[in-house]
Amino acid sequence: MIESQLIDKEYRLEDQIELIQRGDEHLRNDIIEAYQPFIAKCVSDVCKRYIKKQNDEFSVGMIAFNEAIEMYSKEKGSSFLAFAQVIIKRKVIDYIRKEQRQYMYPALNMNDEDELEESPLQISEAKKIFELEEESWNRKQEILELSDHLKKFKISFKELTEISPKHQDARESAVYAAKQLINDPELKEYVLRKKRVPIKQLLKLVPVSKKTLERNRKYILTVFIILTGDYVYLREYLEGVDL
Asked: Is the pLDDT of residue 136 over 80?
């Protein structure tokens, strides 16, 4: 039986989904439990209000997430979470339509009986906890995804602390170099295809030496990956640098 620790690092999520599809029910339960903040976020986006676990819409989202596990195929090209988000939103929208109600939600629905029993302060605190848990979960997923992406460029996540420029101006230069690669269609395609920095061509676009580019090439590649990918939270680490 696959242990739940696989959720953290040993397997990519898409590989874990494949293991579940092969019959690992223990891992299925662990995955569904671990991704409840993601499910709640997807459902809340549709309902335009904060959804709690006891809400019927959350149950619909849980069922949809489980269905997504069964339906997902890596051959389709999209990540599992992107696929699951689509399935969850479709199912919740179908549920809303079947209920035939007017769903004009504020951020928090104060009309629900279970929420009327709580004070505004309790509701506010619960919402803050939910948002913090969601943000923490999202950051963790981005780090795992980036770590996996870096392997394709022959960069280990551990060495990032060693290759990151220590000075602000050096970081700004590296980010500027990464942006030049992104802004030039040919150079961007080169990096995506070759998985390396075209030093000779980049020298014509940046006011730094070849030695500097060589020294910071892995950091430039990492910034390139973050800026061209869907890394909302990791971009925050580049704040203060001219993006």
From this structure: no
Q: How far apart are CA 118 and CA 141, in angstroms?
A: 32
- Map tokens 């676009």 to a residue: 205
User: What confidence score (pLDDT) does residue 120 get?
Assistant: 54
Per mean pLDDT, which range of 90-94, 132-136, 146-150, 156-160 is the poorest? 132-136
What count of other Cβ atoms lies within 10 Å of the Cβ of residue 105? Answer: 15
Closest by alpha carbon to 43, among 90, 92, 96?
Answer: 92
pTM of the model as a whole:
0.49
Give pLDDT, residue 19: 93
Q: Checking phi first, is residue 103 left (phi over 0); if not, alpha (psi -120 to 50) or beta?
A: beta
CA dihedral 11, 13, 19, 25 (to 10 degrees): 110
Cβ pair 105, 57 in contact under 8 A: no
DSSP per-residue letters across 78-114: S-HHHHHHHHHHHHHHHHHHHHT------SS-TTSHH
Contact criterion met (CB below 8 Å) for 195 and 144: no
